[in-house]
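Researcher: Structure for this, please.
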Amino acid sequence: MRNPPDQHAYPTHWEADVVLRDGGTAQIRPITPDDAQRLISFYERVSDESKYYRFFAPYPRLSDRDVHRFTHHDYVDRVGLAAIVGDEFIATVRFDRIDSRGMPAHSTPATAPDGGRTAPSGAALADEAEVAFLVQDAHQGRGVASALLEHIAAVARERAIRRFAAEVLPANTKMIKVFTDAGYTQKRSFEDGVVRLEFDLEPTDRSLAVMRAREQRAEARSVQRLLAPGSVAVIGTSRSSGGVGRTVLRNLLDGGFTGRVHAVNHAFPDDLTRLEPEGVPAHRSLRAIAVPVDLAVVAVPAERVPDVVAECGDHGVQGLVVLSAGYAESGREGRDRQRDLVRQARTYGMRVIGPNAFGVINTAEGVRLNASLSPQLPNPGRLGLFTQSGAIGIALLSGLHRRGAGLASLAGIAGISTFVSAGNRADVSGNDLLQYWYDDPRTDVVLMYLESIGNPRKFTRLARRTAAVKPVVVVKGARHSGSAPTGHAVPTTRIPDATVSDLLRQAGVIRVETVTELADAGVLLASQPLPAGPRVAILGNSESLGLLTYDACLTEGLSPLPPRDLTTAATPDDFRRALTEALADDACDAVVVTAIPWVGDARADALAAAVREAAQASGPTPAKPVAVVHLEIQELAAALAGTGGEPAPGTRRIPAYPAAERAVRALAEAVRYARWRQEAAEPGRVPEYDDIDEAGAAADIQVLLTPADDTGGTGDGTGGTGTGTGDDTDPGVELSPGDTQRLLARYGVSVLPALPAPDPDTAVRAAGRLGFPVALKPTAAHLRHRTDLGGVRLELGSEAELRRAYAELTDYLGRPEELGLVVQRMAPRGVDTVVRAAIDPAAGAVLSFGLAGAPSELLGDTAHSLVPVTGRDAAELIRSIRTAPLLFGWRGSKPVDTAALEELLLRVSRLVDDHPEVVAVDLEPVVVAQQGLSVLGASARLAPPPPRTDLGPRHMPAY
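Model: Predicted structure, token format:
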């Protein structure tokens, strides 16, 4: 029994898998009475010195009383966590709540609704606790204590503990460093030969930065162990020449892997010690291998994988590449099998690529790893490639290799640094590879094919950080299916694909539509400098091809200069002189060279040499990018790319494309990315507004979220209304108009009053209070904002006009009680817009903007931004929609007050950022006039705040 009567419910949500500093994994979970023997065994493996540091005295063994104390917790005042590898403790941490005198806090709290406890009436629950660690000596230096501190601090905050105190011997410098490096606000004192550390547990910018830096190093190291093993065992190598295992073994050897290779198959004869003709050691079991194995490639039937994983764990293998199929892609039973695979591997501290993976590749000269089904090791280069699809992985690798002779070769012009095809990506995902590639010196450009994004918040955070130093290019499949692909066990998101695209671009991600565009953009970014602007010079020997390139530039939003026609008689020297002049011209930022076959003796290699000579005339890294568009000159691309491999010092390789549209599209992506890089270097600011009443809004929200039978209703007597979904995970409250207006007013957002008009006489009285002219409109859900149905009457300047409009609406649309008619004062004329904010469980708070009516509803012309929004984000948001010209004086109209609109966006962003309970805000319409704006309609919904996993302690995705 996990929780005796004196304990509260076992907090399952405290369990987590974490990646440690060396790339291995461990499980963190609460200690229970069932762990008594584990604790004793753990303590026996701890050195006398570590025991002394923990207890300040010789303490060779734990007494029965100690064991009981350290395994029995109430999960409120006394909590213990353990880090576990295999079935053994490798470290423990515990806290005990203490009062202001440093004595144990022995209150008798009442049970709280969430299973926790609260202080008795009139008593304040102590908010300080004493914390202590013990780490097994063999695991010290792996970052175990740092990970445990993050988790025990999160537990403490959940239990209303705001401060930790720790007493440490001065000689215990490692533990002192754990505390001081954590980034919390702390106080340090020395008394009676003991260092006393006190630190607040409220996360700070520094503590979050420390946590994320540790996360990056740990996850990058875990990937590095998979991509640079010293030895590989292929488990499931068949005796015959075919089969997946034997194919991977051959690919490893043919690629020139620099480490040791072992073939493993339980069906090998007892006397078989070497597999021929490969000449590698053969073993019936991993246990028979006398030397360490770093990476295991698993190619056995799914039902045999658990035994293989156990063997690998016992042998100390660091990671698995599981090629085997039959997992989540095959149905419910397979999903259970996949979950068990990840749990079992993590138990042994191993990470998993797959299952159903295509494999991994590392072209580094000191590694040369091809643990994949690709028959060839790609040429080394500067591109990191991640795919969630084996088929796409095959197509990309073979296509890039094949294109060395023709189309914008990656094999010759850039090549691959590392490649991972993660299959079902049950464990290692694109996020892990972003952590690795962020500071990988061999990778200059990241290319990713994604079918699902399991943790959008983390992905956008990591992508933004990586994009600040190197391009991240993404093509996303399964955009319109509405669900994750079979085999991907990821959280679902309600965000439309267009919104996802906006959020990726906001994070600096270059999103392209096809795998071809992925390669086209990658080759340009890997081989050319970023353009300083959108001005493009075009030159070549075909006027028609130059015009096609010019049109393509305009289509992509670039600023092309008039094409320079060198005529069909142009020689390579003519190309060289023209390109040299263009690169020296301050009026252009990039050059596109166009070429068609010519009549005469000129050769493609001579033209390529001329272009490369001009491009590198100012040095090996020219200031402007150059791309070549050719028609039916297959030899030109190969000559421009070189002979394969890394270029010699001082040599420039030029990307070539068989169509102007492809070259220009890649160049346009580079221009937009360069602009983002420039802006990201000086991030925007979230402004402060003196009239915002954050505390007042928090108090309102607390009252509005309290059940009506406890509070007697909401402030205006009407109360909020539940969503009526019956979904316990979304107990939302739809606010009444009065409550919505009061909440928005706390943040300086005024809603134009609208008075109910249940009958004509009341409508007239309401108009008298507001002042003519007025508008009459319905509030019924099926008619709200439906001006196309004739349900809104404007500019009613007299009682007679109002009564006539009232009669017409009720005759045409229905009875007054069905319509919910209201009277509202007329606002200054302007452009009708809509502002919305919503919380997505996976992506977080998203702010949206568009023009009201058909532009946003029919055409989907809406822009989106993650919250919090900066001043720069707000300005970009209103300018990024296609119908933005209507705000800035289109066709002779007067520009509207976009400054007021930007301020409104910033205030709504602040509201949902400051109060995560505000899960939806809808302002429609917002009429933006030449001076100021008017919010004519508003609604809001509250719900208990969803958990912010991105702000909690680092952990791997739960399985």
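Researcher: Any notable elements?
Model: The chain has a mean pLDDT of 87. The two ends are 23 Å apart (CA to CA).
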